[in-house]
Design brief:
alpha/beta, 2 domains, 7-stranded mixed sheet, globular, binds adenosine-5'-triphosphate, binds magnesium ion
Length: 290
């Protein structure tokens, strides 16, 4: 459990005092994909939106600026609620305008498209666009094909994506395909804890930490990507446990058969047999590092 007090850093007038993590993330978010992840209420959205507002003030030349999120309601509340709040944005709040449900907004005087991702047709809404910058609210709630299509839109030199999210399952595509491949995909991320929000009442923080247990504690307080409780093999990690070649087995313990009439195991085709069987055995002791 975290007990450290938030560290604070001086910031420009008009904006709130920021924690060190918030200030660092704003200053360092110059990668192609910039991801704020971690605990609930930890200050991710505020930091990412201060960064996004400054980005909108001076965007790369050419291309649209886009705000995306699951629904118009969540975007209205999570993004524009903060951008238009003078307590957070100071005088800059008056330069942002948005009507709930509208497809366009103004941020720091710049026109911005608002595109939501809550249905199967969402990805098609992005096709054909050229984007200079994209803000993604709650990345784990966005369909993967929408996110993939959004990245392809960032063809303007210097264009960037800014994403916030709480953690999900370790198997989530956002973690496996992007967070764990940060160097390959030019992603920079910051993991936030409750102590990184300088505005939270310590009593509320202590109550939240004491109240959440199990999966909720690990995901939303510790900010870890972990499996839902009740998962039968919650230690299963497919980066460690899925192999192309089995090690030599010294003992076979069982071979199970997935009996079914829809996807029968013992079909005539050889690949049907390969896909459906489960074999459990003991291999020789693992060598160090393997
Ligand atoms: N530096 C700050 N100064 C003042 N208030 C802040 C600051 N950072 C965050 N807050 C406030 O703390 C609350 C939580 O912050 P924020 O919404 O950024 O957290 P979050 O990590 O995005 O949370 P969630 O995971 O629930 O979306 C908000 O009410 C926000 O206005
Ligand atoms: Mg948030």
């Amino acid at each position: 459990m975290h007990t450290a007090m938030p560290q604070t850093a001086p910031v420009r007038s008009g904006l709130p005092s920021l924690s060190l993590k918030q200030a660092q993330s704003i200053g360092q978010s110059t990668a192609k994909i910039n991801l704020w992840e971690g605990a609930v209420r930890s200050g991710k959205t505020v930091a990412s939106l201060i960064r996004w507002a400054t980005y909108c003030a001076d965007p790369p030349v050419g291309g649209s600026l886009v705000v995306t999120g699951k629904t118009f309601d969540t975007v209205y509340r999570n993004v524009f609620g903060v951008l238009t709040d003078p307590a957070i944005m100071g005088d800059l709040a008056g330069l942002t305008a948005y009507t709930r449900g509208a497809p366009t907004a103004t941020i720091i005087g710049k026109p911005v498209e608002v595109i939501t991702a809550n249905d199967a047709k969402a990805e098609a809404r992005l096709r054909g666009m050229t984007c200079g910058g994209i803000y993604v609210d709650e990345g784990t709630l966005i369909p993967e094909d929408f996110f993939t299509q959004a990245l392809a839109r960032l063809s303007v030199p210097g264009s960037k994506m800014f994403v916030t999210t709480n953690p999900g399952s370790p198997a989530h595509w956002l973690r496996k395909k992007y967070l764990l491949r940060a160097a390959e995909v030019s992603l920079r991320s910051w993991k936030f804890s409750l102590d990184d929000n300088p505005a939270l009442d310590p009593e509320y923080v202590a109550w939240l930490k004491a109240t959440y247990v199990g999966l909720w504690y690990r995901r939303f307080i510790l900010g870890d990507w972990c499996f839902a409780e009740g998962a039968v093999y919650d230690m299963f990690d497919d980066t460690r446990h899925v192999v192309d070649i089995l090690p030599p087995m010294s003992d076979w313990l069982c071979v199970s058969v997935d009996y079914g009439t829809t996807n029968p195991l013992h079909g005539r085709r050889r690949h049907a047999v390969r896909r459906r069987g489960v074999a459990v055995g003991l291999a020789a002791a693992r060598q160090a590092g393997r």
